[in-house]
Design a protein that fits this description.
It contains no helices and 17 strands. By secondary structure, the protein is mainly β. A hairpin with a 7-residue loop joins strand 16 and strand 17.
């Protein structure tokens, strides 16, 4: 089970054998109501975002489960979405957008971008252009409207927070043995 939604369980393939999808299985149904091709990058109780296989131009499609409406997010040329997280109110989808091939064991360059789930408009989160191995995780904690990311570098660990529409990130460096209550960002 990848995620429970308002319309059933989103199931991940247990073993990847060739092109498969992620089925959405309603309770009591004999078969899935929908299969999402490619890879699911984010899911919530009311929305599913997936990216079909792509070549030169990639996109992410957001399905609003209650209405059945799709919103398409067009990614920059030469990029792909590798992970995502919906905001608690479902208005935004934060995406880890990767650039480059990462061949020869090299890390991909990536940045966080946030899409409006209503329009598909994509906004770059300022100051998040890093190698993909530096991004530890990201999400919308505590039901709030701030996207928070943890970045780990050789000499430091940082937590960054950004609210859609803000001109810059709020960033704090984490010190060894720091009390969690002293960590207030932005």
């Amino acid at each position: 089970i990848e995620q429970a939604t308002d319309r059933g369980l989103l199931l991940a393939p247990q073993i990847q054998r060739g092109p498969t999808g992620f089925p959405l299985w309603p309770p009591g149904a004999k078969r899935p109501s929908r299969v999402f091709p490619g890879g699911v990058v984010a899911a919530s109780a009311s929305e599913v975002a997936w990216t079909p296989r792509c070549a030169t131009s990639c996109r992410v499609t957001v399905l609003h489960l209650a209405t059945g409406r799709d919103t398409v997010v067009r990614l920059p040329a030469g990029s792909s979405a590798t992970d995502g997280a919906f905001s608690p109110d479902g208005d935004y989808l934060a995406l880890q957008v990767s650039f480059g091939s990462g061949g020869d064991g090299g890390a991909l360059a990536m940045q966080l971008q946030v899409a409006s789930t209503a329009t598909g408009h994509l906004t770059v989160v300022p100051g998040t252009w890093v190698s993909s191995d530096a991004l530890v995780g990201f999400g919308w904690p505590g039901g709030g409207d701030r996207l928070v990311a943890e970045l780990s570098f050789l000499t430091k660990v940082q937590v960054a927070a950004w609210r859609p529409g803000a001109a810059r990130l709020a960033v704090v460096a984490i010190r060894r043995n720091q009390e969690p209550a002293t960590l207030i960002v932005g």
